[in-house]
Batch of 2 targets.
Target 1
Amino acid sequence: MSNIAEQLIRATLSKFEADRQEALAVIELYLNHPVGVAEHPTVIAELAKATENLATAEDSMEALKRNFLVSEPESDEE
């Protein structure tokens, strides 16, 4: 893989990691800081959306890693 391709993959992984962190922060906020939640009538919909965003980010990161990042062969030694 060329250097530019690797940079693009790593940049994309960073973007998905940021999306993942944002989703985790939103979920944490709704679950652990109920003061702001009480005024939010669509809390279930917002939690569902944040959960979907989290899953999408994690799935996307794994797909890129699995298909485009070269990993070291696993050793059979134990």
Target 2
Amino acid sequence: MKFKELLDKAYKEFKTTKTNVVFQYTKPIDISIQSILDRKEIKKNMFYMNLPDNNTYLGIGKTLSYKVSSKSGINNLIKKKHTTISNKSQILRFFGGLAFNLNNKSSYPWNNIPRGEFYIPKILIEENKNEINFTYSRIINKSVQKKTIKNDYKKILSTFDNNIFINNKKPTIKFESESPNKKNYTKYINQLINEIKDKKIEKVVISRLVKYSLKSKLHIGKLIQYFNEEYPKCFNFFICFSKQTIFTGSTPERLINLEGRSFIVDAIAGSSKTKNELKNIKEIDEHNHVIHHIYKTMSKISSKLNKQEKPEILNLKYIKHLSTIISGTLKNDTHILNILSDLYPTPAMLGNNSKKALKYIEKTEKTDRGWYSGAIGIYDENGEGDFYVPIRSGIIKEKLLLLFTGSGIVSKSSANKEWDETVLKLNHILSYFKKTNLK
């Protein structure tokens, strides 16, 4: 069905039902997402997500948006119902994410950023293997005229013919500050280790924020290209919240994939520069906390549950992690958002006992984690989807780069080694830049 015919059908549906209609028109295009990123300036309400299975999405603008400010708000999203007219699939997909702590108000460096948000983009470019599709979405109601939508659609398609490539020179980067610094970080960790040994808590994950200045503006498309080339098994992304704030990263940690009743969850914890150090009881202990939480959570709702007998080693160029895949089958049809609400944040990013760990984090960390170590991904109206934990990530604010990094503290931890681990993890993103003074 052609665009005009489908649009007529959508307006007819609106006149009949008197309720808003989500109109979606999909057509194949012959320009890759990377080529679009090379040509277009990144603007507010753009996002990019490249999943390790090579499904890639570029979203521009917002058609329908839902903000989330509590755990109960996650489950409320499931109740949202929509009338859809589409030439492809009637099942709507929503893209977005959630902050690590939904209960806290946003503060520096997440000022004016929602604690959680999922939305349907106005334009979605989806690349899967050799197929590239363009989807245009609009809400049909009495306030928008049919002619306006037709003209808008034509105008948007014409913008992809732009052949002007953006300057892709890598900016020079310089260390500016960190919170906390090494002295305070190791002090906090030593205090925490003593409390863990006194059985007051089992594990806490402590993060910190490191600030760098950029000599020139960073072209996000080239950074994304670097992530895809260097870390093809990671979930590589950016979300442009505003002109001043882009959240970007390249995370190896899948939170959950759900297709029908079949699910896969990754337990990733325990980090080291060498394979032998991953055999240390400290790394194994840290890893087991995460496995226990995931297994306990998923066993309540699963008819079948599988866990790898031994952890695999996830080998990134600068670091190695212990990784255990937990998979299975749900007892009943369950929306991925319901599972997400119970799973996150995992002990990999929070700790054990979760309530106590959160108190230690709030006491120790002086800056808002925001979406770092929260959840980011996709869900559809059938309840299926993919979510990842946005670690190895940071915020770009014009000519500033703010990177988050952290480590899991257990009884066998060493404060100096934990500090070294946080420094090591920064290399995931810092290795892209032309360096002058990095700390």
